[in-house]
Specification:
Layout: H1 8-14, H2 23-32, E1 34-38, E2 43-45, E3 53-59, E4 61-67, E5 73-80, E6 84-85, H3 87-92, E7 99-102, E8 106-112, H4 113-122, H5 124-150, H6 153-163, E9 176-177, H7 181-188, H8 192-204, E10 208-211, E11 214-217, H9 220-225
Protein name: Crp/Fnr family transcriptional regulator
Keywords: DNA-binding, Transcription, Transcription regulation
Pfam families: cNMP_binding, HTH_Crp_2
């Protein structure tokens, strides 16, 4: 049975950054943050739009992607419940350079840009959180470049799943990953059929189990080290 999803306020108070704010700072954040529902296939953010919010996922799953000149969709990463993204673009004061699409019905939290910038000015713990966030994101993308350029599909699927278990970027993830084979395909750059083959191979290797409603990770370190 699926656990009830948190309210917006519960989500904000449970975040890593929310837990380090003072009561007065948190009260100001709670007063201005708002929630948005985005249906499956809808846009959370669009490329080229002005940056007005820092964005978090209360419940659901989104993919950050772009399109090549030929029209091919390229997925950079996924963000699950508990994750926040877009801080780099806000810090650079640039227009958004990618699309963010909901892979399933998704509840989104938005913090206005003015509040994000205010926290940068007044909260040293919030700045420390962002430093860690950017460092973890950099490590994630360096690993992804290596995976995409050097590794086969089976290994990409394994590393894609392992990358979801980053306690800083995705603090809400459980050992039962509620991702469909189609969603795994999107995030690892493989077709649904090819992702299914890879998952079956990883299941035979004892690294995961395909359960109803998701994928149960049995050996996280094995997924991180796996190479076909």
């Amino acid at each position: 049975m699926k656990m009830p999803t948190p309210t917006l306020l519960e989500h904000l108070r449970a975040t890593i950054w929310g837990r380090v704010l003072t009561p007065a700072e948190m009260a100001r954040v709670e007063a201005v943050c708002f929630e948005q529902f985005v249906p499956k296939g809808g846009f959370v953010c669009r490329k080229g739009e002005p940056l007005e919010n820092w964005v978090g996922i209360i419940d659901g799953l989104v993919k950050i992607n772009n399109f090549s000149p030929s029209g091919k969709s390229v997925t950079f990463t996924g963000v699950t419940a508990g994750g926040w993204f877009g801080e780099g673009s806000l810090l650079k004061d640039a227009f958004r350079k990618y699309d963010v699409m909901a892979l399933r019905d998704t509840r989104v939290a938005r913090m206005p840009r003015a509040t994000f910038e205010w926290l940068l000015e007044v909260s040293l713990p919030f700045n420390r959180f962002l430093l860690m966030q950017l460092n973890e994101r950099l490590g994630q993308f360096i690993g992804q470049v290596e995976t995409d350029r050097m590794l086969d599909v089976d290994t990409r699927v394994a590393r894609c799943l392992a990358a979801m278990f980053n306690a800083h970027l995705y603090p809400g993830l459980d050992k039962l990953v509620q991702l469909s084979q189609e969603e795994i395909g999107y995030l690892s750059g493989a077709s649904r059929q090819r992702a299914n083959q890879a998952l079956q191979l990883l299941e035979k290797a004892g690294l995961l189990r395909l359960d109803y409603g998701g994928i149960r990770v049995l050996d996280l370190e094995g997924l991180r080290q796996y190479q076909a």
